[in-house]
Amino acid sequence: MGKNFLLYLIVAIGLIFAAGFVFAKIEKDTDKDGLSDREEQQIYNTDPLNADSDKDSYLDGVEVSFGFSPLKDNQAKLTKVNLDVPYINEAPDNNWTGPWKNACEEASMAMIEKYYFGKSTVAISEAKVFMSTMFTKQNTIWGTNADSDAKRTAQLINDYTVANAKIVDNPSVEDIKKELQQKHPVISLHYGFDLKNPNIPFVPASRGGTSYHMLVIKGYDDENKEFIVNDTGDRNEGDGYRYDYDLFMDSLHDYDFSTHKANGPARVIFTSAKLVKLTDNPKVFYVHDSIKQYIPNATIFLAKGWNWDAVNVVTKEWLDTFQLGEDIK
Ligand SMILES: [Ca+2]
Ligand SMILES: [Ca+2]
Ligand SMILES: [Ca+2]
Predict the structure, then answer these.
(1) What does the alpha-carbon distance between residue 17 and residue 5 come to, in Å, rounded to a whole number?
(2) Ligand 1: distance of its center to the CA of 70 in Å?
(3) What residues does CATH 3.90.70.10 cover in the chain?
(4) In the chain, count of helices (H) and strands (E)?
(5) pLDDT digit string, tens, across residues 90-113
(6) Rounded to the nearest whole angstrom, what is the distance from the C-alpha of residue 58 to the centroid of ligand 1?
(7) Is residue 165's pLDDT more than 60?
(8) What was the pLDDT predicted at 57?
């Protein structure tokens, strides 16, 4: 029975693969316009049964990815995005002692990891497991888990999560908005005191605090000129807190190990999923740097330790920006 069972398992996996990754938790996109039914109903207020809600000949999903409104025709801009990023506080169970009181980096990484797994909520225990793993990795690599700068954070994301991380210096508001339009949350690094968030007791540099802070940008609102964020340090209103564009951009600073202060360059981390597919094509690719590699079968996919739930649907326009590398072996 053991041998036969193994054979059945291999055949079953093969069939599932041939059927197009039905294991992957891909959300239903009834009208095949690149936005899932849930996104259309909950985020963009478009018609999940009409691929071109505003009848301007451009698909709803294509419009969103290029920053145009899927609800207003002509060249109307997409004035608001609010991605479904699960909220995780840096002290998930409200225990503000070490290492949790310094865990804005781990909470930010956890939100990115869980977002690309398609989760809109995360249990406290689950968040703590991921964050604890990240504490341990940092202790092993650098001997400390406090004050991880952009470089360390990007390294941890690239090596230990289902997401890619890319450091970007001196971003503009438009650069960040473009990422959000592609459904990519952005990690931002701050001299926290300058964020002037009354719910976070930052100690200014003049009184010896580093005020180094990290959070996740999940949306924008042009009407009010605000970013919509998941603020890791705000225990009252962290989920969907809003910051004025100018105040937010002025507070961007990386941590500088030479000065032990958050007075480095203005810096953010762009993110994307490592495992992607198009909405109407079963082919799954592994993307990293500027390369996309086709994963030819389920056996190879599973042997890499990958998870179907981490496969994200992307637009053809975005996938086309990657060069085709060798197939994954
Ligand atoms: Ca749709
Ligand atoms: Ca639609
Ligand atoms: Ca349209």
Answers:
(1) 18
(2) 11
(3) 100-272
(4) 10, 12
(5) 999 999 888 998 899 999 999 999
(6) 13
(7) yes
(8) 85
The DSSP bridge partners found for residue 219 are 82, 228
Please give the distance, rounded to the nearest whole angstrom, from the Cα atom of residue 233 to the centre of ligand 1.
Answer: 35
Q: Please identify every residue whose CB atom is under 5 Å from ligand 1, which is an ion.
A: 29, 31, 33, 35
- CA distances for 95 relative to 89, 124, 128, 199, angstroms: 10, 12, 12, 16
The residue type of 167 is I
Please choose, from the candidates 308, 300, 324, 321, the residue with its C-alpha nearest in 3D space to the C-alpha of residue 276: 308
Give the closest ligand to the alpha carbon of residue 31.
1
Separation of alpha carbons 289 and 281, rounded Å: 22
Look at the alpha carbons of 138, 139, 143, 146 in this order and tell me if their dihedral is positive or negative.
positive
Give me the residues near ligand 2 (ion), CB cutoff below 5 Å.
Answer: 31, 33, 46, 60
- CB count within 10 Å of CB 283 equals 14
Backbone conformation region of residue 12, classed left if phi is above 0, alpha if psi is from -120 to 50, else beta: alpha
CA distance 212 to 297: 44
Position 12 scores a pLDDT of 52
Topology given in CATH for the domain delimited by 100-272 = Cathepsin B; Chain A (3.90.70)
Task: Calculate how far, in angstroms, residue 245's C-alpha sits from the geometric centre of ligand 3.
Answer: 28
Report yes or no: 195 and 224 within 8 Å, Cβ to Cβ.
no
Percent share of the chain, pLDDT over 90:
73
Assign 3-class secondary structure to 232-266: CCCCCCCEEEEEEHHHHHHCECCCECCCCECCCCC
**Per-residue pLDDT reduced to its tens digit, 235-289:** 899 999 999 999 999 999 999 999 999 999 999 999 999 999 988 788 999 999 9
Q: How far is the CA of 200 from the centre of ligand 3 (A)?
A: 41
What's the pLDDT score for residue 26?
A: 67
Cα 272 to Cα 6, 29, 63, 165: the distances in Å are 35, 20, 19, 7
